[in-house]
Amino acid sequence: MILTVTLNAALDVTYQVPEIDWTGVNRVRSVHRRAGGKGVNVARVLHGLGREVLVTGLAGGPVGRAIEADLEAAGLPRALVPIAAESRTTLAVAGGGGGAALFNEPGPEVSEAELREFGRVYASLLERAEAVVISGSLPRGVPAGTYAELAALAAEHGVPAIVDADGAALRHAPVGRPAIVKPNAEELARAVPPHGHPVEGAEHLRARGAESVVVSLGEEGLYAVTPEGTFRARMPYRVEGNPTGAGDSLVAGLALGLVEGAAWPERLRTAAALGAAAVAAPVAGDFDRDVYARTHPLIEIT
Amino acid sequence: MILTVTLNAALDVTYQVPEIDWTGVNRVRSVHRRAGGKGVNVARVLHGLGREVLVTGLAGGPVGRAIEADLEAAGLPRALVPIAAESRTTLAVAGGGGGAALFNEPGPEVSEAELREFGRVYASLLERAEAVVISGSLPRGVPAGTYAELAALAAEHGVPAIVDADGAALRHAPVGRPAIVKPNAEELARAVPPHGHPVEGAEHLRARGAESVVVSLGEEGLYAVTPEGTFRARMPYRVEGNPTGAGDSLVAGLALGLVEGAAWPERLRTAAALGAAAVAAPVAGDFDRDVYARTHPLIEIT
After folding, report:
1. Residues of B (7-46) whose Cβ lies below 8 Å from A
2. Contact B15/A62, CB-based, under 8 Å?
3. Are A292 and A277 in contact (CB under 8 A)?
4. What secondary structure letter does DSSP report for B296?
5. Residue A90 belongs to what H/E stretch?
6. Does this entry carry the keyword Nucleotide-binding (chains A, B) (predicted)?
7. Of the given ranges (A93-102, A228-237, B25-34), which has the lowest mean pLDDT?
8. Which residues pair with A54 in a beta bridge?
């Protein structure tokens, strides 16, 4: 089983409004609600590939129960730890013209006791895990070093961890000696001293404890700096679509390669193809199987 | 106990966003969630006045559970009938400049079986009711004559009904011989043939079966056309604030007068003062006790 951790699970809501009146009353034509957060999206992709997954994290209030209900409906096994505060909602208001405004709620504040309880549940879930993916933002009240601690706990259980984070959580993550840290180029630039090339930035994170670092460059492909050497994946062509969720799909590919013991070039090929296939799918957590099958053999690894 | 019926119960959500970017990503500074729908607001006002109330209606899905949880938190007794579809959310996005955009979800579709089950629950609740307030919009799948049927069922139990509705539901309502129908001037104009004066419009609804008709005119006060005669309430001064929920507060005042057996002039005074006191309160379902106390003796009844 691949465990995915989403400490700041969300309910992703999309309103379709044909003609938006930003100062008046709008009738919403359709409403879509879906459990979200980066770890949930990673689990969806792995589940779609037929892998056994388990979603853990924190969820609270009626919105937390809506997240649970949607995971249930999607057939995604879960072990979410309840919190008192209400989980966050993200709202996209999409108009007829194709534009969208996004509203991100501040999200819950997590208590020390709740975080301790999560640690207890997490440690027990590690007993059954082949790999763990720790990704997304930290809710308020959760210390920046938490992902490092979760990765270290996984390492103690012999479970390789992948961390996909930003900001302080990313800066601290290598201390936990995760198997893979996956920033994109902007996140990497914010987390390490100025560097001329993404590979130099990645080496900073490796020097701090990360075994391998994969830097995603959007349509420019990927760099992987690993004990086996440095690799680059280049995309065969540009895939049009929605980049939201592409990073999560890419991380799912890295997790797959990790549990299958694939060599780095093959891991990268799978990750890059899943990233492209997610761009071709309209919703985060989905991927286009045709694009995946078509892109996979064409990705160039050097 | 005063029973309030809210067939289209809602979760009223307000986002405060300091500077709204209608084409980009917004951090929501604060989120307020509150059970709503006109019958819920009426119950809040009556509860605030120390009256025993019971909220009934339909609620479904995670949003329905959020509505239940908020009623619980507010100490409002309830007997909501569950439905399969998800209850509606109304969202107000309020910017720093004071403006707000409103988004109304299409809301649930109710099945015949669910509506029958509601009828069964409603009939049993009438056994304990002194009065029933039936108000707000009808969810999809609920026939326009439903409020008339609910009022007729109340009459069979000897329970006076107040109906506050719009459109087809208002046009049908008098058939159920409700004690009071409460449209505002615009709703009345849409529901009856063209008339020169609100009192003439009210007489149309009385001719169809309504015992009394109260027409609210906003800051212009109220007309009541009743078996005891026709009365007008005039406001002593203009109250500044938020008119959302003023109609519900006014209806709470009418219900109070009904169960207390107050004469029409006194009922109107209470209703008009509660309407004004709701304008002075920022949130629907609340009212300003000082404004209520100050306005009440000054309202002129003719």
Report:
1. 15, 17, 20-31, 33
2. no
3. yes
4. G
5. strand A88-95
6. yes
7. A93-102
8. A3
A98 close to B (CB below 8 A): no
- Do the beta carbons of residue B75 and residue B48 sit within 8 Å? no
| 8 Å CB contact between A158 and A152 | no
Pick from A69-73, A95-99, A213-217, B134-138: least confident:
A95-99
Do B106 and A28 lie within an 8 Å CB cutoff? yes
pLDDT at A172 exceeding the cut of 80: yes
Tokens 């000897």 -> residue: B158
Q: Which of B61, B69, B103 sits opposite A93 (nearest CB)?
A: B103
> Once rounded to an integer, what is the mean pLDDT over residues A103-121?
96
A63 touches chain B (CB under 8 A): yes
Question: Residue A96 falls within a domain, yes or no?
Answer: no
Here the tokens at position A103 are: 């509203």
Residue of A237, A222, A223 lying closest to A295 (CA atoms): A237
Q: Mark yes or no for CB contact A105/B31 under 8 Å.
A: yes
Tokens representing B96 are: 């720093």
Q: Is the pLDDT of residue A257 over 70?
A: yes
Range of the domain at A209: 2-9+36-86+109-301
List all residues of chain A from 210 to 239 with a beta carbon under 8 Å from chain B.
none
Contact predicate B269/B279, CB 8 Å: no
d(CA B253, CA A302): 78
Low-confidence ranges of chain B (pLDDT < 70): 97-98
User: How far away is chain A from the Cα of B219, in angstroms, using its nearest Cα?
Assistant: 22
> Of B28, B69, B99, which is closest to A103 when you measure between CB atoms?
B28
Q: Which residue has the tokens 């909220």?
A: B55
- CATH at A65: 3.40.1190.20
The band of A94, judged by pLDDT with boundaries at 50, 70 and 90, is confident
Cβ separation B106–A21 shorter than 8 A: no
Number of domains in chain A: 1
> Per the domain annotation, does B23 fall within a domain?
no
For B106, which residue in chain A has the nearest alpha carbon?
A28
Residue B98 lies in a domain: no
A58 touching B (Cβ < 8 Å): no
The answer as to whether B154 is a domain residue is: yes
- Provide the pairing of β-strand A10-17 with A30-36: antiparallel
